[in-house]
Amino acid sequence: MAAQATLHCLTGCAIGEILGMIIGTAFGWGNMPTMVLAIILAFFFGYALTLRGILAAGVDFKTAFKVALAADTLSIAVMELIDNGVIALWPGAMDAHLDEPLFWIVLAISLGIAFVLTTPVNKWMIGRGKGHAVVHQYHH
User: What does the pLDDT average to over 29-46?
Assistant: First the structure.
């Protein structure tokens, strides 16, 4: 269950990260504004994926939003910290462009590391009845 919750988080984070980097690059933004946008979008898509499932179960938006915040905030925050930390520390990664293999290789490695290190966080939360344990009650 923890790995599945982390994969769910990873999907939203990856969508947001890649979209943020594409937008930042397209507008010629520097590294910092592009990274901020990517993080914001990672949270947005992470929450959106959880909301989609909860809303499909017939839960009202206000309740679904509260559940998504409670279930995903720590997981997404850890995922983003690790993912962006790896990218920021990897030599040349911050200056790599979308058309360069280094960009995609480091992004894949950073998301892989984030998955491995975030799974225990989700396991810990689920073990305490928090995180995706709360979301699970809304799935049929």
Answer: 94
Cβ contacts of 19-27, under 8 Å, gap ≥ 24: 19/45, 21/98, 21/103, 21/107, 22/98, 25/97, 25/98
Alpha-carbon distance of 104 to 51, in angstroms, equals 28
- Taking only the tens place, the pLDDT of each residue in 26-35 is 898 998 999 9
Identify whether the C-beta of residue 131 lies closer than 8 Å to the C-beta of residue 122. yes
Count the neighbouring beta carbons within 10 Å of the beta carbon of residue 61: 10
Q: Cα(54)–Cα(40) distance, rounded to whole angstroms?
A: 21
